[in-house]
Amino acid sequence: MKKKLMTLITVAIISELAAITVVFYLFSYFLKDETIVNAVSADTKNVLPGYSSIYSNRKSAAENSQSEKNHIDGRNIIEAYIDFVGDRVIIKEDLYFKVPDRTEGNDINHVSNENDINCTSAVDKVYLYIPSLNAADTTIKNIFSNNDIINSELNGMVLEIQLNRSRQDNPAGQVQNTDREISNTYISIDFEILLNNSTGTISRSCNGKCVYLANFLATPAVFAGETPVFMDKTSFGDPYIYDMNNYYITFKTDKDMEIYAPGIKEGIQNPTGNTREVSFTAKNLRDFSAVILNGEHDIHIEKVKNTNIYYINSSKANDYVREAFLFAVEKIGPYPYDKLFVVKADIHPLKGMEFSNMVFLSDKCFTNKEDLQRVAYHEVFHQWFYGIIGTNQINEPFLDEGMVNYLSMKLMNDNFGNTFDSRFLDMTLRDYGSRNDYYKLAYTDAAVFMANIHQKMGDDFYKLLQKIYNDKKFTILYYNEFEEYLRQFSRGGY
Hints:
Elements: H1 2-31, H2 55-69, E1 76-85, E2 88-100, E3 119-129, E4 138-145, E5 148-155, E6 158-168, E7 181-194, E8 196-197, E9 202-205, E10 210-213, E11 219-220, E12 223-224, E13 227-228, E14 245-254, E15 258-260, E16 264-265, E17 275-285, E18 290-293, E19 299-304, E20 307-312, H3 318-331, E21 339-345, E22 352-355, E23 358-362, H4 369-381, E24 390-391, H5 397-411, H6 435-457, H7 460-472, E25 476-477, H8 479-490
């Protein structure tokens, strides 16, 4: 009996030791992937409190999702899950993108330890735009990466993330060629946005019946060569620049709410209780915007060419939208998307705002026919110069604003002078001292500049726009490139 008792005790002890060993192993396994996140700002609205225990699961799920999408067309991938709690928009977002190598301190092919020829390392910075900071209170909660995060810092609307990347050699012991391009960068970010009340492009309006979400997702920074273009907060102008991205966005809302957004809308995923989930797949867009409606609204749909135009409380603008749309298709090039949303919105002090596949027209415009016509023309033309053909709205704001303002004035048969103040050619958005100076120079004087070009070129002006459309659609047109197009046309090169 005593012998049996000793045997049972021994087995129990061995079992306990085995269990402890397994727990220790699992703990060590997850700990080694832990990514520490530092506070990025003394401003309590924008702090990153640290590592979240959900990182490993999210990383695994995200990597599987990335594998399925596989960067087929080379676009950045942005996935987000969006929930609402009162006036807070809670966002869990995963981003996959490429950035030019920003190696600091080490050559990217330098072996970190001469006794360890199988490992190389490099320190790189990646940059994310947090555009919602320009329009609403935004709090960053957590941030993760598939590489070790050494440090992160929020400057203006740009989150700078310093990564330590480890690379493995190939079996022959040769360092793999990175081609000065780093792929498979994965960043996951959790943040919250506080909706404004009844005004702006990120707000709850219409007596609580509308939620507007625009320029609200974290987005990989644009690089001009190997130099990132930085966003700054501003009270006027459009401090936004984006490459083309593929979006996979899921909303969780009250079951009675209707969501309008670009892309393919998936069916409701098993609604339970008072909530439901709706997903959108929107490819080849610069930004992703959404309008969430509750209650009765005036929704009118009209097909123009191959595009369904959705008028959301904005039917009075349909004649002007159609005119500008058809003019742009004829003079510039086809609209490559099957949806365009025109939204009457409370966005004071703005009169209008452009987004990919969506425009906002201020409700104030609907009380004045000429204002509505002018703003509708302007914002529809932005679908071509901003949406399809990107521009640097931060460092060259006159290029798209001058172009679309000229086309709008042309369509309205406005009279143009021949003189303009050319200072706008050398001014970034930061250089404008006031809203009035910005609109006078970047809009009015730049429009007269475009009118002068049209006058000199005659009918070749529209051939110029068509050439730019064919060459630069889905990319970004910089002013030096625009000048080269002008030189080529003047020499008869096209």
